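Record type: monomer structure entry
Structure origin: computed from sequence
Chain ID: A
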Amino acid sequence: MASRMFSTILVTPPCPSTLNKSRVKPLTNSAKPFLCSSSSLFEVGVRNGKIKCKAVSESSQGSIDRTVYQGVFGPWTVDPEDVREVVLYRSGLVTAASSFVISASVAFSPDNFPLKEIIEQNLNLFYLIGAGGLGLSLYLIHIYVTEIKRTLQALWALGVVGSLATYVALAQPAGENLVQYVLDNPTAVWFVGPLFAALTGLVFKEGLCYGKLEAGILTFIIPTVLLGHLTGLMDDGVKLTLLGSWMALFVIFAGRKFTQPIKDDIGDKSVFTFNSLPEDEKKALIEKLEQHK
């Protein structure tokens, strides 16, 4: 699909068109040229020896957003698959945040709270659901540098394996759930820690890319709580305060993701498409872009 998207760019001469605030405008003689995409939002035709580009009628696209964004390597659009991925990415964050908040709430609940016992009996389940939600988000996250994305995914996988090993080899024989075992044995943070390191990397990316204050604060709170528990240098009162802040900020962070435009979590789609091309096609595209600067 990626190769097909840029195939027209490589073989089609520049088409007279212009972009005004990411919207395609009608053809004019004074329009500046840009490289035409082979996306279904365009039709390319030849008449009287001249090549023309025009937008496909809206009815043929249904409810697809026809906004065209000018990327580094050419124009791109949001398609239904992009929307699904972004919604799933954000849903994974909501799942992780919800599971974490429910699990952590037992630290603040009175002993006579009706749901406290039920939550404590199902902490392993909530941990599993939360880890799954985070894994889904890390699988779908859009990061330009592939190595960074793979590193976050590797940390998540290492944390999942470490959590499973800790539960099977240590927590279960001791008659405890995984969360309670980590609370009682701070050194177990070494085994589950990579999972939270992956979460820290994700919120750091969100804070850096979108200037989200809650994400920026979480970047410091998450490792501080874990390191404080691991080293024993943090008393319970401070840990509870930071844990409560973590819970509140995580909910705000996950909820506010749904207030962003879909395109924000896609990034510059032309960059991802370019990265997926074979090296020879990358070179050809770069040369084509250089010629039309």
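Annotation 1: The chain is about 60% helix and 10% strand.
Annotation 2: Residues 1-63 have pLDDT under 50 and may be disordered.
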